[in-house]
C-alpha cells in the first residue's frame, strides 16, 4: 500500500488536473471585457497598464504569449491560460493546506507541532484526503473564483499567492524545530514580494501567518502575547503597504530632488546616492545579526531582502515607460512619477478612520504634496495636490456616508434614511456599513459562492433553498447564472468550522483570522460608495478561500456524526467523503453553463467592428474601459487597424496622455493638437468655466484656441480672493469657418450630401465648464482642417459630444464629424447622425463579425448584452433610412440579417428592438412585428410586476429599461395603426410610471 505522503501528492495532483481541465474547457478564447484586453496587450508587449500595474503578472503573461510562436490570435487564450493554471495551482495548494490541518484532527494531535512521522491508517488517510478534495473542489467551482480563472485578470494569480503563503507557513510549522527551518519563511517572504507585483490582497494573510509563528514558537500562549502578535503582524502589513511599496521610492525621490535642485548634480545622482546608502544599511543589518548571533534579526533581514527581490519586478514599469511605448499610463519613467503611479494618485482617496461626511463643506483648500516634473536641468513643482480642510464638527469617526456626488446621495437613501443638509448620525453611518458595505457588498457575494445566486443582473441577490422562479422576469428566471447550491456548501462549512473550533481551537482561530482579514477587513478599507459600475465579488476571493478550508474539514465533522451508525473507519470515511463530494458536484453542475466562455468572441468582435467603422487614418474618441481596452487588444496584439488613433476621453484630461497623442503610433500620425504642454500641463486649463460676456455672441474656434494658447487676458477670470485666474469661455456658441472648395476636393462629403455642406459649422456647448478633454476636441477641429477623419464611438456619453450632433454622420458603430449639417436632426430625438446608407450597408452586412451571437448555448451576461443592443440600434437606423429612401428590398435584407445574427433565443430582445416594428410592417413582416410586440410586452409586464414589489430601489435600471421598452412598443404600435397593442403597452406604462 502507498504511504500517506505519496497518496497526498497523488490525490492533490488529481484535484489539480480536474480543476485545470475544467478551466481550460471553459476558458474564454479572446480578451474579456473590463481590464482583460489591457492586461493581454500589456503582457504581449510589456507595456505600462493602469496604476499600480501588475508587473509580475505581465512578465509571466509575456512568457506565456511566446508560446503563440507568432500566431497573434493565440496570444489571448495563452494569457487567459495563465489565469487558469494560477487557479488550478491555487486549488492544489489549498488541498495540501486542508490535508495538513485535517491530519492533525484525524490523528487527535491538534495544535502546532511536527506530525510528519505520524502515519495514518488507510481509513484515516481516506478521510483526510476526502476532506482535502471536497474543500479544494468546492473552492474550484465557487462562482467568483471560477469567473476569475477563465480570463486574463490578476485575481487568479493573487489567489495563488495567498494559497502558497498559507501552505508555506503550514510547511514551516511542521519543520520549525529543524536548524534550517527558516528557509521556508524566507521563501514565503519572496512570494509576498512577488505578490506585490500582482495584487496587494495577498498581504492581508500576514496576520494569520503571524499567529502560526507565535503559536509554534510559544509553549504557553497568552492573551497579551496574542494581542502583541496581532499588533506586530498588522504593523508588518502597514510597513509593506506604506513603508516598502511607496515609501522607499518616495524617499529615493526626495534624495533625487535634493541632490539635483540643491546641490546642482545631474539627474539620477540622488537616486544613486540613495541606493548606495540603502545597500549600506542592509549590509549593516546583516553584520549586526552576525555579531549578535541573532537568528531572529538575520531571518528578518533575509525576509526583508527577499521581499525586495520579489518587489523588484516593479522596475519593469519605469524601464518600459522610458521607451515611450504605445500604452504608457501615467508615464512613470522617473522615480517621481513612479511614486505617483504606485500611490494610484489619479484615483483620489476615500476617508477611512476619520473624515468628512457627505454634506461637509470645505472651509479652505491647502497645498498638499508637490508634484515635480523635469524642466531644463532642475525639478520644478508642476502643481501642489489640493488638500481640502473641513470644520471638526463636519467630520466623524469611521465615515461611511462621505460622498456628496448626487448619484451617490440618491443611492445612500436606498439604504439609510438621511436628508441632504443634515449631518448623518453615527447610527446612520454604521447602518450603511452593516447593511450595504458588509451585507450587500460582502455577505451577498459570499453567499453567491456557497448558497446560490439569483442571476447575472447587477444587484442580484442570494438564491436560498426553496426559492422558486414563479413570477420572476424571464431575464432572471431563465438565466444560466441562476444557480442553486441548496446552501449545502455553507452547511458543510459551518459543520467544519464548529468541528475545528471544538478539536483544534488555535488553527480554527488562524483560519478565522484569514477569513476576517481577507473579507470584512477589506470592507472597512475599501469604504465602497453606494453604487459600483460592476459587481466587486472578486475582491473577496480570500474569504471564500478561507471558508473552503472549513468546507473540507466539514467532511471530518460528517464522519464524526456517523460514528454511531458506522463503526469501521474506512466505511465511515468513504461515506463521509462521498456525501461531501455532492457539494462540489452540485456546484460544477450548476455553474458550468454560466462560466463556460469557450465560444464567446463578443468583446473582441465589438472592438474590431468599431475600428472597421472608421475611414483610414481616423481619430476615434472612445469612452471607458469596455469601450477602450478591447480596442487596445485588437490593435496591440492582433494588429487590427493600427492606422486608427484611439483617443480615450477620460485620459484626455491628463497631460501625459495628450503628450502621447502627439507622438506617432504604428501607422497613425500624431494627433493634430496645436497646444503646447504648458497649455495643458496638469493644473493648467483642467477646466474652463463659462463666464458670459454679453459683447461676445459667438466665438470662432480657431481664434478661441489661439487665445487659449496665448493664455490671453481676454479669457481670464478670477475667483475667490482674485489671486487665482482661470481661462474661461465667454459664450456657449461656437463656430468653425469651412473652406468648402477644399472640403469638396477632398471627397469626404458623399455625393448625396453635397447640398448639406455648410460654409461654417455652428453649435452650442451646453455646459457650464469645458474640461481639458473638450478643449482637445476643439483644438483638433480647429487644427485638423478635415485632413483626418474624426469619429466619436456611438457608445460615448452624449454629454461629451459638445453639441456637435447636427454634424454627425453615422458610419457603422461610430459618428463621423463632417461639415455637412443633417437637415433632419432634432435635438428632442435621441437618434444622432445622418445615416450614410451605402457605408452602413457595407459595414453591417459585409464587414462586421458577429461570431456566436446566434448561438443560444452561449451565455451572455449583462455586460456582453450591451454591445449586441448597440448593433440592433444601428441595423434599425439603417433599415428605417432605406425605407425612407424607397429601398424596400435592401431594408428587408438588413432586417433579416439582424434577426439572423442576433435571434431572440440567443440575444433576448432589448429596448432597441421596437424600433424595427414599423420597418417590419413596411416590408411585409407583420407577423414578426406582432410577435415582437407581444413577447416584449409580456416580458415587461412580468418584470415590472416583480421589480415593483421586490427591491425596487436596487433595480432602477431594469425598471426604467422596461418602461422605455413599453413606451417604444406603444409608440411603434400606434405608428402602424395597431391600437389594441398600443393601448395595452401604454396602459402598463402609465400604471408603473408613477412608481
UniProtKB/TrEMBL annotation:
Keyword Acyltransferase: no
Pfam families membership: TMEM260-like (PF11028)
Keywords: Membrane, Transmembrane, Transmembrane helix
InterPro entries, sorted: GT117_domain-containing (IPR052724), TMEM260-like (IPR021280)
Lineage top rank: taxon: Bacteria
Spans traversing the lipid bilayer: 7-25, 53-70, 77-102, 122-142, 154-172, 184-215, 227-245, 265-284, 296-317, 484-501, 508-526, 538-562, 574-592
Name of the featured protein: DUF2723 domain-containing protein
Organism: Hymenobacter mucosus
Amino acid at each position: 500500500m502507498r504511504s500517506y505522503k505519496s497518496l497526498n501528492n497523488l490525490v492533490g495532483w488529481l484535484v489539480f488536473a480536474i480543476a485545470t481541465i475544467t478551466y481550460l474547457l471553459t476558458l474564454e478564447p479572446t480578451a474579456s471585457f473590463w481590464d482583460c484586453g489591457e492586461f493581454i496587450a500589456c503582457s504581449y508587449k510589456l507595456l505600462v497598464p493602469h496604476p499600480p500595474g501588475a508587473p509580475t503578472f505581465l512578465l509571466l503573461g509575456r512568457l506565456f504569449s511566446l508560446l503563440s510562436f507568432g500566431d497573434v490570435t493565440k496570444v489571448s487564450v495563452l494569457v487567459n491560460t495563465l489565469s487558469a493554471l494560477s487557479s488550478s495551482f491555487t486549488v492544489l495548494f489549498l488541498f495540501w493546506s486542508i490535508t495538513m490541518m485535517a491530519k492533525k484532527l484525524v490523528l487527535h494531535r491538534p495544535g502546532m507541532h511536527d506530525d510528519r512521522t505520524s502515519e495514518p491508517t488507510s481509513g484515516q488517510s481516506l478521510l483526510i484526503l476526502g476532506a482535502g478534495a471536497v474543500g479544494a473542489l468546492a473552492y474550484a467551482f465557487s462562482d467568483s473564483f471560477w469567473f476569475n480563472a477563465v480570463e486574463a485578470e490578476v485575481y487568479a494569480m493573487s489567489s495563488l499567492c495567498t494559497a502558497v503563503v498559507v501552505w508555506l507557513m503550514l510547511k514551516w510549522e511542521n519543520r520549525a524545530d529543524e536548524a534550517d527551518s527558516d528557509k521556508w519563511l524566507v521563501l514565503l517572504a519572496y512570494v509576498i514580494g512577488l505578490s506585490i507585483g500582482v495584487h496587494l490582497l495577498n498581504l492581508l494573510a500576514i496576520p494569520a501567518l503571524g499567529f502560526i509563528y507565535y503559536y509554534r514558537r510559544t509553549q504557553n500562549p497568552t492573551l497579551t502575547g496574542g494581542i502583541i502578535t496581532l499588533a506586530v503582524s498588522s504593523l508588518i502589513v502597514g510597513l509593506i503597504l506604506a513603508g516598502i511599496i511607496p515609501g522607499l521610492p518616495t524617499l529615493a525621490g526626495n534624495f533625487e530632488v535634493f541632490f539635483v535642485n540643491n546641490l546642482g548634480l545631474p539627474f539620477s545622482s540622488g537616486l544613486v546616492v540613495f541606493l548606495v546608502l540603502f545597500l549600506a544599511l542592509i549590509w549593516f543589518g546583516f553584520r549586526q545579526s552576525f555579531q549578535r548571533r541573532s537568528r531572529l534579526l538575520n531571518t528578518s533581514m533575509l525576509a526583508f531582502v527577499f521581499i525586495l527581490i520579489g518587489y523588484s519586478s516593479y522596475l519593469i514599469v519605469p524601464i518600459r515607460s522610458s521607451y515611450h511605448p504605445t500604452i504608457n499610463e501615467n508615464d512613470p519613467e522617473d522615480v517621481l512619477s513612479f511614486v505617483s503611479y504606485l500611490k494610484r494618485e489619479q484615483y483620489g482617496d476615500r476617508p477611512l478612520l476619520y473624515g468628512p461626511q457627505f454634506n461637509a463643506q470645505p472651509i479652505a483648500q491647502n497645498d498638499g504634496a508637490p508634484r515635480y516634473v523635469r524642466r531644463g536641468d532642475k525639478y520644478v513643482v508642476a502643481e501642489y495636490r489640493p488638500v481640502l480642510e473641513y470644520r471638526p464638527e463636519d467630520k466623524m469617526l469611521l465615515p461611511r456616508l462621505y460622498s456628496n456626488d448626487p448619484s451617490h446621495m440618491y443611492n445612500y437613501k436606498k439604504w439609510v434614511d438621511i436628508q441632504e443638509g443634515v449631518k448623518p448620525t453615527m447610527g446612520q453611518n454604521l447602518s450603511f456599513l452593516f447593511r450595504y458595505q458588509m451585507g450587500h457588498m460582502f455577505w451577498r457575494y459570499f453567499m453567491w459562492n456557497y448558497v446560490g445566486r439569483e442571476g447575472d443582473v447587477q444587484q442580484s441577490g442570494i438564491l436560498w433553498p426553496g426559492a422558486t422562479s414563479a413570477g420572476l422576469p424571464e431575464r432572471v428566471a431563465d438565466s444560466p447564472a441562476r444557480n442553486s447550491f441548496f446552501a449545502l456548501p455553507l452547511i458543510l462549512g459551518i459543520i467544519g468550522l464548529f468541528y475545528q473550533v471544538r478539536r483544534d481551537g488555535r488553527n480554527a482561530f488562524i483560519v478565522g483570522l484569514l477569513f476576517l482579514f481577507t473579507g470584512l477587513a477589506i470592507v472597512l478599507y475599501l469604504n465602497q460608495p453606494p453604487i459600483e459600475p460592476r459587481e466587486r465579488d472578486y475582491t473577496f476571493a480570500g474569504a471564500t478561500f478561507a471558508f473552503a478550508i472549513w468546507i473540507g474539514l466539514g467532511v471530518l465533522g460528517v464522519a464524526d456524526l456517523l460514528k454511531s451508525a458506522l463503526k469501521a473507519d474506512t466505511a465511515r470515511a468513504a461515506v463521509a467523503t462521498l456525501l461531501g463530494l455532492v457539494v462540489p458536484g452540485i456546484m460544477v453542475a450548476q455553474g458550468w453553463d454560466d462560466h463556460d466562455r469557450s465560444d464567446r468572441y463578443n468583446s473582441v468582435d465589438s472592438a474590431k467592428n468599431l475600428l472597421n467603422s472608421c475611414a483610414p487614418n481616423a481619430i476615434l474618441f472612445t469612452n471607458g474601459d469596455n469601450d477602450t481596452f478591447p480596442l487596445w487588444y485588437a490593435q496591440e496584439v492582433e494588429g487590427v487597424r493600427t492606422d486608427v488613433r484611439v483617443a480615450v476621453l477620460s485620459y484626455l484630461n491628463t497631460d501625459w496622455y495628450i503628450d502621447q497623442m502627439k507622438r506617432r503610433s504604428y501607422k497613425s500620425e500624431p494627433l493634430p493638437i496645436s497646444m503646447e504642454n504648458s497649455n495643458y500641463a496638469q493644473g493648467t486649463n483642467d477646466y474652463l468655466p463659462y463666464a458670459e460676456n454679453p459683447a461676445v455672441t459667438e466665438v470662432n474656434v480657431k481664434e478661441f484656441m489661439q487665445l487659449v494658447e496665448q493664455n490671453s487676458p481676454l479669457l481670464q477670470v478670477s475667483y475667490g480672493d482674485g489671486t487665482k485666474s482661470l481661462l474661461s469661455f465667454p459664450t456657449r456658441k461656437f463656430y468653425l469657418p469651412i473652406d468648402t472648395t477644399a472640403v469638396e476636393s477632398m471627397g469626404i462629403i458623399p455625393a448625396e450630401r453635397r447640398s448639406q455642406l455648410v460654409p461654417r459649422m455652428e453649435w452650442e456647448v451646453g455646459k457650464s465648464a469645458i474640461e481639458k478633454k473638450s478643449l482637445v476636441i476643439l483644438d483638433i477641429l480647429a487644427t485638423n482642417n478635415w485632413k483626418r477623419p474624426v469619429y466619436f464611438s456611438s457608445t460615448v456619453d452624449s454629454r461629451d459630444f459638445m453639441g456637435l450632433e447636427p454634424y454627425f454622420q453615422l458610419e457603422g458603430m461610430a459618428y463621423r464629424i463632417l461639415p455637412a449639417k443633417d437637415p433632419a436632426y432634432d435635438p428632442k430625438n435621441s437618434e444622432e447622425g445622418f445615416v450614410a446608407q451605402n457605408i452602413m450597408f457595407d459595414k453591417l452586412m459585409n464587414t462586421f463579425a458577429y461570431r456566436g451571437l446566434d448561438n443560444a448555448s452561449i451565455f451572455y451576461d449583462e455586460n456582453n448584452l450591451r454591445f449586441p443592443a448597440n448593433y440592433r440600434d444601428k441595423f434599425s437606423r439603417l433599415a428605417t433610412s432605406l425605407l425612407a429612401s424607397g429601398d424596400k428590398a435592401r431594408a428587408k435584407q438588413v432586417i433579416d440579417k439582424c434577426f439572423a445574427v442576433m435571434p431572440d433565443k440567443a440575444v433576448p430582445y432589448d429596448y432597441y428592438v421596437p424600433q424595427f416594428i414599423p420597418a417590419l410592417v413596411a416590408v411585409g413582416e407583420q407577423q414578426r412585428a406582432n410577435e415582437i410586440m407581444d413577447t416584449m410586452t409580456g416580458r415587461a409586464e412580468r418584470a415590472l410586476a416583480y421589480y415593483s414589489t421586490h427591491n425596487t430601489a436596487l433595480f432602477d435600471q431594469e425598471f426604467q429599461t422596461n418602461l422605455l421598452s413599453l413606451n417604444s412598443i406603444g409608440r411603434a404600435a400606434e405608428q402602424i395603426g395597431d391600437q389594441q397593442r398600443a393601448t395595452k403597452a401604454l396602459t402598463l406604462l402609465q400604471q408603473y410610471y408613477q412608481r
